[in-house]
Design brief:
The protein is of the alpha/beta class. Helix content is 27%, strand content 25%. It has 13 helices and 22 strands. It has helices at 23-33, 43-52, 86-89, 121-135, 159-167, 174-181, 243-258, 284-291, 295-308, 349-355, 384-392, 407-424, 483-492, and strands at residues 13-17, 58-62, 65-75, 104-112, 140-145, 185-191, 203-210, 227-236, 264-266, 312-314, 318-322, 325-333, 339-343, 363-367, 372-375, 397-402, 427-436, 445-446, 451-453, 465-468, 475-482, 516-518. The strands form two sheets. The chain has a 15-stranded mixed beta sheet that branches. Helix 11 (384-392) runs parallel beside helix 12 (407-424).
Length: 519
């Protein structure tokens, strides 16, 4: 043991990698910590670990002497699965299971000198492990944790009931409580994981910490960027002489925003409404159906713009008439030349009554070269179930093209969009039209203020507004959003709206599985 230091002497704690010179202290700490059930690691075992995986063997020293340490391996976890034992995962403690090309950092030991307990040295070791897991781009940290206090309650509680009471702090278990406090979640209860652990009644808890920055090395598409640049158009509805004139207006904004090397450009709902003036003599239902004749041509042109200007374009929304039904459809036009569609799920009462518009029945999460995105057209954002389903499928940015005539309608879209950003821990970009179209019924006046919203936590703007345009004036906004901040928020935020949902009490789910497409 380290001799007691004079009370006036300060600790000098340093976290570092172990060396073989630390072995005597490692053995000494293990001897006083595990004298009832765990043999001390031999010097040859520690030497082999240091040779196989030196960066995974971590210690905390005080004035040059080790007072806590952690040992680990990298394993190809699919070869073992969740039903392994400690002997199997360590190759009967030969560590031949270590695989530098594996996907999981497997924790095989954490030990703290009893005289240093209460100083949160275990947390230092786990923080160092997490940093290593991220640096090596490993999927997670997994460990088999003892339940050393379970023997006190085993006559009355099953292991799962004991774990639940530890979670709710009705029972204290030093190992399991520590793991839960360090953001590990329980994967499985194991039996005979570590034979001879009488205090745990031969049970163990398989726990996992997920690396939110992990990138699939086999991903053929890309390595994701850590941020996205979003350009949002606050679109002036103006009379146009022809579809070519309309394209000139569109290309002006594509050119301007792509010049800032934006990843996304967002146009508003029904942004092609000026072309409906041509059909002003028709009744409104017929006029919008005639407008739908332009949709395919416009979509093809915007795909061309996306490729030539190297920017992903969300083409607001446009009417689509198919199978004798009218829909309101937003298109994602990728810069690789592909496109996909999101149909508006909830037509407003006016859209149904004046235009005879129908709602779509599929919810998409779109993959792009930067982030996973979802699209909800105007009224759809006022239904929180839709974005929650998207969030569960990994959506990072929600796009909301809208068209509102009065300020109260705009406020519904804005407030609901801000709520969606907070509750789903994602960014939300809203794009609306401004100005007047005197000769276009149902689209004759617009109120709008485009914006990009964020979750509300320390890493984000104080008012959770990344950027916003000037109300009722044609302009663009450019906003950079940090995707890593979202991943950090999911696991470590002040509040964790996604993680803390009471799935034992409620859930949101689709009635038809085919209604969801994860693109």
């Amino acid at each position: 043991m380290i001799e007691n230091k004079n009370e006036s002497t300060q600790h000098l704690l340093v976290t570092r990698n172990l060396t073989i010179r630390d072995y005597d202290r490692i053995a000494e700490i293990m001897a006083v910590s595990y004298h009832l059930m765990h043999d001390v690691w031999s010097k040859s075992q520690i030497k082999k670990l240091l040779k196989l995986f030196p960066e995974g063997q971590i210690g905390v020293e005080d004035h040059g002497e080790i007072v806590a340490f952690a040992l680990s391996l990298v394993v190809d976890y699919k070869k073992f699965g969740d039903n392994h034992t400690f002997q199997k995962i360590t190759g009967n403690e030969t560590f031949d299971t270590h695989n530098p090309n594996g996907d999981v950092l497997y924790a095989i030991e954490v030990c703290v000198d009893p005289e240093y307990r209460g100083m949160r040295l275990g947390r230092r070791l786990y923080d160092a492990r997490k940093e290593l897991c991220e640096q090596l781009n490993l999927r997670s940290i997994i460990a088999g944790g003892r339940m050393p206090n379970y023997h006190k309650y085993s006559d009355d509680l099953k292991p799962k009931d004991y774990i639940q009471k530890v979670r709710t702090k009705e029972i204290y278990d030093p190992v399991l409580y520590f793991q839960i406090s360090n953001d590990f979640h329980v994967k499985k209860i194991l039996h005979n994981y570590l034979p001879g652990d009488k205090a745990s009644r031969n049970y163990a808890v398989l726990v996992e910490w997920n690396n939110i920055y992990y990138e699939e090395s086999e991903d053929p598409i890309r390595v994701r960027k850590s941020y996205a640049r979003i350009g949002v158009v606050q679109w002036q509805l103006r009379a146009v002489r022809s579809v070519e004139s309309f394209f000139d207006n569109v290309e002006f904004f594509v050119d301007a925003v792509s010049g800032y090397k934006a990843d996304f450009l967002v146009f508003p709902e029904l942004f092609n409404a000026p072309l409906m003036a041509e059909f002003n003599e028709s009744d409104t239902a017929q006029a919008i159906r005639k407008l739908a004749n332009y949709t395919e041509q416009i979509r093809e042109k915007i795909v061309e713009f996306a490729v030539s200007y190297n920017i992903n374009i969300i083409a607001g929304s446009m009417p689509v008439y198919e199978n004798e039904r009218l829909y309101n459809v937003a298109y994602l036009c990728r810069r690789d030349g592909t496109f996909e569609a999101q149909y508006k799920i909830h037509p407003t009462p006016a859209e149904r009554g004046d235009w005879g518009m129908s709602g779509g029945d599929k919810i998409h999460v779109f993959d792009t070269d930067v982030a996973k995105i979802g699209i909800l057209i105007c009224y759809d954002v006022e239904f929180p179930e839709l974005s929650r389903i998207m969030a569960e499928k990994g959506m990072e940015i929600l796009i909301v093209p809208f068209a509102t005539d009065m300020q109260n309608g705009y406020q519904r879209v804005r407030v609901c969009s801000q709520a969606r950003a907070i509750e789903n821990e994602c960014y939300v970009a809203i794009s609306g039209s401004v100005g007047n179209l005197p000769k276009v019924k149902n689209m004759d006046i617009q109120f709008g203020q485009s914006a990009v919203f964020s979750p509300s936590d320390f890493a984000f703007p104080q008012n959770a507004v990344v950027a916003e345009g000037t109300p009722n004036t044609e302009n663009t906004i450019i906003a950079d959003v940090d995707l890593d901040d979202l991943r950090e928020l999911h696991m470590h935020g002040s509040v964790r709206n996604l993680l803390d949902r009471r799935k034992d009490l409620y859930e949101v789910k689709l009635k038809k599985k085919e209604c969801l497409k994860n693109n």
